[in-house]
Write a structure and sequence with these properties.
The structure is a homodimer. Chain A is mainly alpha-helical and about 200 residues long. Chain A is built from nine helices and no strands. In chain A, α4 runs parallel beside α7 and α5 packs antiparallel against α9. Chains A, B: One of its GO terms (molecular function) is transcription cis-regulatory region binding.
């Protein structure tokens, strides 16, 4: 971002690399670890070794394991959880929510987020990092897609799209964090239909 | 429940009392403590003293502080979070959700639940207690009210009311647990209107 050269090589003898590139490497390493093995195996030691960056630098960029995890996770899922725009908001929401549910249920990602949200209830620094490095960005991306649907007249302009974020993704988090009921495909479909069509008799 | 006489008095010299009555006393004591002071001050010691019941009996009925807290909390808020039935589902949902938001935001109840949900992400026993002693009962009560709205033709019968639970109360929990956005009255009103009316142009 700032264009300064990083002080470290990558352990493969190529010498100095731009900080942005080093940073991206670290985030990729952290994100890969999270999505394949979960958060227990994510240590500064391990990320330093795998990315060829000193622990000092890691701590300078990410003051805590939670911060590193959240930044790494955001970058790891960014592409998978992209918001498609085919012009059909119902189809696009279904596509995105299905991808989201898949990451939550079938990769260690769901556990990672649940544990970070859990810990952030009693750890103010982690709560701030969670919002700053993860949830506020995800909210913004979702809102951008929903605003485009408003511009096309598919969602009324008097609707506060941030409320829809809670009624779609927030509803999935609710089942993830308090698993009284399962996250099924029928659930995902119902989330979208209930909001677009309303639940009163037609 | 079982009609056996409890082995303890209430510390005020009235001798043996029915177990149900003793149990109700303990739950009231625990619930009052939670709603006025939060969970940090809830100890078996303190509840035993305040209710005149031995710690041994408390541990027999509630194997952990979490279990006692959840059972106490459920009973403490049961009346406040009752689901009114005036025959108008929109008005009744608004009334109930406003009462729910009030407890969550303006009493220590919200923090209590957030911390219990948080801890239950890494404590399986607490997660089970949470569902068994609190959330499953709340879900059932909400579903009963929504089913009556279906019987009156106010909500379509093909709607799975459990999904509505996630899109109404779950959405509030989402803002409580990840406070990117505040729980305002406009938010509560939007939750209900979005689902009853749908968000597409009319």
């Amino acid at each position: 971002m700032n264009g300064h050269a990083a002080k470290e090589g990558n352990g493969r003898g190529r010498g100095r690399r731009p900080a942005d590139e080093v940073r991206a490497d670290v985030l990729r390493t952290a994100g890969d670890l999270l999505l394949t093995e979960g958060i227990a195996d994510l240590t500064f030691e391990r990320v330093a070794k795998a990315s060829g960056v000193s622990k000092t630098t890691l701590y300078k960029w990410w003051p805590s394991k939670g911060a590193l995890a959240l930044d790494g996770y955001f970058h790891a899922v960014r592409e998978t959880l992209d918001f498609p725009d085919t012009g059909d908001v119902r189809a696009d929401l279904l596509t995105q929510l299905r991808a989201f549910a898949h990451v939550m249920i079938h990769t260690p990602g769901g556990r990672v987020l649940a544990e970070l949200i859990g810990e952030s209830q009693t750890d103010q620094d982690l709560a701030t990092a969670y919002r700053k490095l993860y949830s506020s960005h995800r909210r913004r991306l979702a809102a951008e897609r929903l605003h485009r649907a408003q511009e096309l007249g598919q969602i009324r302009t008097d609707i506060d799209v941030q409320v829809l974020v809670d009624q779609l993704w927030g509803a999935v988090y609710h089942r993830l964090l308090i698993p009284d009921e399962p996250v099924t495909d029928a659930f995902i479909v119902a989330l979208v239909n209930n909001l677009l069509d309303g639940v009163r008799p037609k």
